[in-house]
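Two records follow; treat each independently.
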Amino acid sequence: MKKILVMLVMASMIVSLVACGNEKNTNENKRINVVATIFPEYDWVKSVVGDSKNIKTTLLVDKGVDFHSYQPTADDVLKISTCDVFIYVGGESDEWVEDALKEAENKDIKIINLMEVLGNKVREEKAVEGMQEEHEEHEVERENDEHVWLSLKNAKLFVNIISETLQEVDENNKETYENNAEKYIEKLDKLDKEYTQTVQNSKKDTVLFGDRFPFRYLMDDYGIKYYAAFNGCSAETEASFETISFLAKKCDELELKVILKETGSNDEIAKTIRENTKTKDQKILSMNAMQNVTFKDITVGVNYLSLMSENRDTLEKALK
């Protein structure tokens, strides 16, 4: 997924880092800079940091840009090059990171790769029955599913690692980061139990997405079955007749009252599926994969826990 643009950015950075990087470091105060590529990482850091003024946290993908299509600017690469802690997912969508880190001015950057943290808990993308494949005529090479943040259980691991890393780079505030992480993980535990209770009390055990499906980690956590038009990283925007027909028949067969889609995407595929069911009365609801959160959202109080709580509410309706 590396683009020519990335290589041009890297070339320009070789000059700009030497020219202004050192000057910037000497003039600014000694706050610790943390750069996170996506919103969940950013929100976890902010929750662990709390009221501490020692940490400056930067979110790279901050204008609602889809995580899968994001390309770094020269300014983004400079932020990474001079930061103290860098957090990224580690999947196919941010392969550009490797080149950015090669040019890093700060050779002592603490790096947190979420997929490396998960290790053998990382899952491959899975094609379930009826899911439309890209390039169906060819054998599809499976990539690892990079939507690792959409699991409360994974989030607990990530928050612990973030806390431990911040304690290393800012020992004077070690107790603050440790305590904040413990309190935040308690909230994750509480919401995790609410999800479990929701699924246990539900009549259905299957959901259906008329859209991309980035929620495998979440569904697997609670044993929820699923059908979808495309996998989580698919670039497809139009579903085939076979895909629509299959999903509509599944709605009928399972008597599903809700067709799900991803927040931020249109509902045309979901509507087409509904129009091909017998009852044509399914509600179309959205679940948020946190791939297009903006700073405007953040300023009005949107956070990881609130979005995962909203997803639980939606899931409850879909499983009735």
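The next record belongs to a different protein.
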Amino acid sequence: MAISASMVKELREMTGAGMMDCKKALTNTDGDMDKAVEWLRENGLAKAEKKAGRIAAEGMVAVKVSDDGKKAAIVEVNSETDFVAKNEVFQNMVNAIAAQAVDTSAADMEAFMTEPWIEDSSVTVEENLKNMIAKIGENMNIRRFDKVEAPNGLVVDYIHAGGKIGVLVAAETDNTEAEVVECLKNVAMQVAAMNPKYLSADDVSEEYKEKEKEVLLAQAKNDPKNAGKPDNIIEKMIIGRLNKELKEVCLTEQVYVKAENKETVAKYVESVAKAVGCNLKLTQFVRFETGEGLEKKEEDFAAEVAAQLN
């Protein structure tokens, strides 16, 4: 019997199992939905799915730069506990995922999960993850990946606190010597510390500016100190605050944290380029922080033990 995409989707929604696991279950049971559910349970995938209901907000970020330094990948893989995040088996898996992401042709996470696993092509990335969940004993999730390329320059990486934060910085340059690499490493550390949202003011969308203006306007009008001030004065105040905020969220406009003279990141990069005698232009950055935006699970071990005793 031919297995349709809608059948795979239905089984996946019923069980929460991986797409390829669902397809395999339907194939082995000739499309019988009930038998396919049982097949998943019998093959231990229901156990993995039970773990998948738990919150995985710990984990680590890993990066991989190609040998020629012109492309790189960054990944975030989550676990339930920091204990597992520090496990060598887990860390090796995350580093292998980053190595696979460098050369992946996948445009999204769903496609990436169906690729043959880099260390064992007989299973997919998703199947390997399921096997690791069963082996380690807690839920894990490959949350996201991104790629950066610099065909006319180089990419550098920076990992902070053993994988809590990962950064990639790309630049166009005709010099890849130590001084330039050090400069870009320093910029990557700036990204890790200051968490900019945009590369430069040119990258800030009008939608973002309008939304921030609305917030600033509401704040200004609700401030008793501004009571009675005419709208044109408040408008000028808002523009000033918005410009200040843009300097904080744009990498090149931020004050370079290691500078003694409060020069911007852009000025720092220019000064290095001038000193070395080369072209050097920042083109892109990516910053991942482990667990950002995820709900952390609150552990109450005393209550857990008490419940088991009752």
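Discussion point: Residues 304-310 have pLDDT under 50 and may be disordered. How would you locate this feature using only the token line?
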